[in-house]
Automatic annotation (TrEMBL):
Catalytic activity annotation: Acts on substrates that are at least partially unfolded. The cleavage site P1 residue is normally between a pair of hydrophobic residues, such as Val-|-Val
Protein source organism: Terasakiella brassicae
Active site: 125 (charge relay system), 155 (charge relay system), 231 (charge relay system)
Protein name (database record): Probable periplasmic serine endoprotease DegP-like
Top-level class of the enzyme under EC nomenclature: hydrolase
Length: 496
């Protein structure tokens, strides 16, 4: 029996076959693919069972901000005064008696980024024109604060609190907003409607939103509930890092409808650093006016795709002129960063260190030209009058004859009103409740597709149709409306 077992043991060695190399490679690649997939899955973070631990950790660093200012009531009617009193005074050429100036209080949110120095970040619009600023901690401790500096262009402000003896602050860190992805979980903490520290959670809905709030718009969009009073509060990732400053919402009702916008932390970092050191921003300046490169322009210039920023004019004696840039050049790269579209260039230049010489690539007469530009300071150029005010194409207009406020249809409007990509026309932004359009039931968010049986693509098209109809002595304007009920024709009375 023992002998037989020894023979059985030896038999596999004697009969072992050579491994097929192709099969071995295939098995190895399969195993490697599974390993990579498992690693990727482990990096994609799922929603936690609860946000309680994260909220408990972060709440002490989030503050409520109360500001007070004197508001002049000159020219305003005291509340509750009946109309016949107004008529009585106006008929006699007099004016209504005016109340005394009053003290107005507004509320917002903020967060501590440096506990030792008492630095608090918030929105510029939260503290704008404030005569007195108070920071209220989670335990209701009130601290006086002073404004170190603010930046209306990004709506960021930096405060410093007057630390009382025995008061210790808790701080949070600014994270890397470039790492956040659409679909990632985020947490917003703030002071909605003055209720105090409130926590909401949601996901990143979109990146790079341009809501025409300023020249450096690059907002993070989130569906985490953000309401009035949340302004200036932080938007956190699941590691507890601030990846955004909650700044604006879209809301026809005034409450959260799941469309909030936050200034990315990577834009805010440079601003905050400048405000702390200088009390104002120090942005890079190139000295050019630019426009988008359309597909037609790209083809005419010999570009294979519509990319870059087309220079329409160059400031005299500015950095661009000194670098040799010319009108008609298309800036493709600045400081080794791709300029994929026109609106990216101002942000890239602004974030570049003042006085630094950087490489620039431009497309000129069918070939790439490499240049070197020394970045100027935007604030100095503005003070000296070297910077032209940007001229934006008019994208909205009020048509008083119809009682409508209209806007051009773009990506932001499609997102705001949840419209499909194939939607066309002019968007209705607001309806005068006492105007002729309201009488016909027109609503904000609906589209005007045609006016006088002609397609319209801009508010100006509608205004021209109104002008022609009134010139022809028409009493109403025929509109083709695209709304929830589908397409419908509506004849709206024209008010002169």
């Amino acid at each position: 029996m023992v002998k037989r077992m020894n023979q059985v043991k030896r038999r596999p060695h004697a009969q072992a076959k050579a491994v097929n190399p192709a099969l071995w490679i295939m098995a190895t690649l399969t195993a490697l693919g599974l390993l990579i997939a498992m690693m990727a899955q482990s990096q994609a973070r799922s929603a936690p069972e609860s946000f309680a631990d994260l909220a408990e950790k972060l709440l002490p660093a989030v503050v409520n901000i109360s500001t007070t200012q004197t508001v002049s009531a000159h020219g305003q009617m005291p509340e509750g005064v009946p109309d016949f009193f107004r008529d009585f005074f106006e008929r006699r050429g007099g004016q209504m008696p005016q109340p005394n100036p009053r003290r107005a209080t507004s509320l917002g949110s903020g967060f501590v980024i440096d506990a030792e120095k008492g630095y608090v970040v918030t929105n510029n619009h939260v503290i704008k024109d404030a005569e007195e600023i108070k920071v209220i901690l989670q335990d209701n401790t009130e601290l006086n604060a002073k404004l170190l500096g603010s930046d209306p262009k990004t709506d960021v402000a930096l405060l410093q609190v007057d630390l009382k003896k025995g008061v210790k602050l808790s701080a949070v860190k600014l994270g890397d907003s470039d790492e956040i992805r659409v679909g990632d979980w985020v947490v917003a903490i703030g002071n909605p409607f003055g209720l105090g520290g409130s926590v909401t959670a949601g996901i990143v809905s979109a990146r790079g939103r341009n809501i025409q709030a300023g020249p450096y718009d690059d907002f993070i969009q989130t569906d985490a509930a953000i309401n009035k009073g949340n302004s200036g509060g932080p938007l956190f990732d699941l590691d507890g890092n601030v990846i955004g400053i909650n700044t604006a919402i879209y809301s026809p009702s005034g409450g959260s409808v799941g469309i909030g916008f936050s200034v990315p932390s990577n834009i805010a970092k440079n601003v905050i650093a400048d405000l702390a050191e200088y009390g104002h921003t120090r942005r890079g300046w190139l000295g050019v006016r630019i426009q988008n490169v359309s597909a037609e322009i790209a083809e005419s210039l010999g570009l294979t795709e519509a990319t870059g920023a087309l220079i329409t004019s160059v400031a005299d004696d500015g950095p661009a002129q000194k670098a040799g840039m010319e009108k008609g050049d298309v800036i493709l790269k600045f400081n080794n960063k791709d300029v994929s579209e026109m609106r990216k260039l101002p942000r890239i230049v602004a974030e570049t260190e003042v006085g630094k010489s950087v490489p620039v690539e431009v497309w000129r007469k069918g070939k790439i030209v490499k240049l070197k530009a020394k970045v100027g300071e935007l604030e100095v150029a503005e003070k000296n009058g070297d910077v032209e005010k940007p001229k934006f194409a008019k994208t909205s207009a009020t048509v008083e004859e119809l009682g409508l406020s209209l806007g051009s249809l773009n990506d932001e409007m499609r997102a705001r009103f949840n419209l499909p990509e194939e939607a066309n026309g002019v968007i209705i932004l607001d309806v005068d409740n006492e105007g002729p359009a309201a009488e016909k039931g027109l609503r904000a968010g609906e589209l005007i597709v045609e006016a006088s049986q002609k397609e319209v693509a801009s508010p100006d098209d509608v205004k021209q149709a109104v002008k022609k109809a009134m010139k022809d002595d028409q009493k109403s304007l025929l509109l083709l409306i695209d709304g929830e009920e589908g397409l419908r024709f509506v004849a709206v009375k024209l008010e002169k």
